[in-house]
Amino acid sequence: MKLIRRSASADLMVEARTTPAVPPMEASAGVGFRASKKIWVDLDNSPHVPFFAPIIDELQNRGFSVLVTARDCFQVCDLANLLKVQHKAIGRHYGKHRLFKIVGVCVRSMQLAPTVFREKPDLAISHGSRSQLLASALLRVPSIVIFDYEFAKGLEYLRPTWLMAPEVIGQEALGAKGKIKFYPGIKEDVYVPRFRPDSSIFSDLGITAHDVVVTLRPPATEAHYHNPESEVLLDAVFGLIRDTPNVKVILLPRNRNQELAIRRSWSSLFDCGKVMVPERVVDGLNLIWHSDLVISGGGTMNREAAALGVPVYSIFRGKPGAVDRFLAQEGRLVFIEAAGDVRQKIICKPRPRPADTQTGNSRALDAIVDHVEFVLGQSSGERS
């Protein structure tokens, strides 16, 4: 389930290969081994919260102790509270300037260090937390970095002990990047199977039966992979919204500054009630499920919509990753590549919602946790 009020709040039930996700010998840790191990999970961005929530539950079900830290930005902590993920808030966001980002990573890693030193975890896991990677390297904690976008930048001279990625990315796209584990499907397959629709969202957001509901997620303008072309496409989307009757847009800005900028540019759409921002954190998957279409400048929400079978249009203009290319080839996602595509490709109409969400199984979740057990076993052997 993806995210939130101005969410960051993603995709599909892909099974890229039919080979077993984990050889049986990799999941052989005993009860005593598990009880003696502590795993540190760092929630660095809002999409990481729904992704890790079932992983944390499964790790605890298997007998592991789990320490959870969270960066207090992008509604990460709000979403963790919504999903009842117990965590310790440490650090914040330092802005989009590259120098500030570097300083922010260093400062937060130092803020994390006392807690990590005291808790002494056996393994650090994140979905690309640079602060965790730096802190774990300094404190000599083995680490796993999970990722689903092969063009994301890491820390220049710092490598995790292990990498983990969806099978659809493939070894050939990664080259020689060290120790890598793959899991079936995609990141959203880990948590989408737990989703159950709740129709009370209609009354909560003031949506009527006559509305064509559009969930709109602006591009991540502060991300290193941001392409200004996405903002041109966003303006074209607002033009389409303005000219299309019966459309109700649920806007999920990435932060307050982005919301204020959009309000200034398109104040008439807010004034007439055509565009609204939820006043509190909402269940992102539930919002997507009850939408007729999704338009997003990011990856996670696009993939969540594809996973739920909701029409989704991507205005992301960075380099497309293997997961999104796969979804486009399967007809589950439509790339909007130029302003002219907005009116030619985006179809604003009601969609029939099946009674069954048909959200698949837990193969991705099981494979990831099995891989974690394997890495813990390897790390213990190397230390002994």
What is the fold-level CATH name, i.e. the topology of the largest domain?
Answer: Rossmann fold
| Oligomerization category of the chains in this entry | single chain
**Structural class assignment:** alpha/beta
Q: Tell me the overall shape.
A: globular
Percentage of residues in helical conformation: 25-40%
Strand order of the largest sheet: 3-2-1-4-5-6-7
Cα(first) to Cα(last) distance is 39 Å
**Proportion in β-strands:** 5-15%
Average pLDDT, all residues: 86
The CATH C-level name of the largest domain is: Alpha Beta
How many domains in all?
A: 2
Provide the gyration radius in Å: 21 Å
| DSSP summary: helix tally | 15
Biggest β-sheet description: 7 strands, parallel
Q: Low-confidence segments, ≥5 residues, pLDDT <50? A: 1-28
Keywords:
alpha/beta; Rossmann fold; 2 domains; 7-stranded parallel beta sheet; 6-stranded parallel beta sheet; 38% helix; globular; disordered N terminus
Any chance you could write out the topology, listing elements then pairs?
Blueprint: H1 31-35, E1 38-43, H2 48-61, E2 65-70, H3 76-82, E3 88-89, H4 98-119, E4 123-126, H5 130-138, E5 143-146, E6 162-166, H6 171-174, E7 180-183, H7 201-205, E8 212-217, H8 229-243, E9 247-251, H9 256-265, H10 267-271, E10 275-276, H11 284-289, E11 293-296, H12 300-308, E12 312-314, H13 322-329, E13 334-335, H14 339-345, H15 363-383
Parallel strand pairs: 1-2, 1-4, 2-3, 4-5, 5-6, 6-7, 8-9, 8-11, 9-10, 11-12, 12-13
Helix pairs in contact: 2-15, 4-5, 8-14
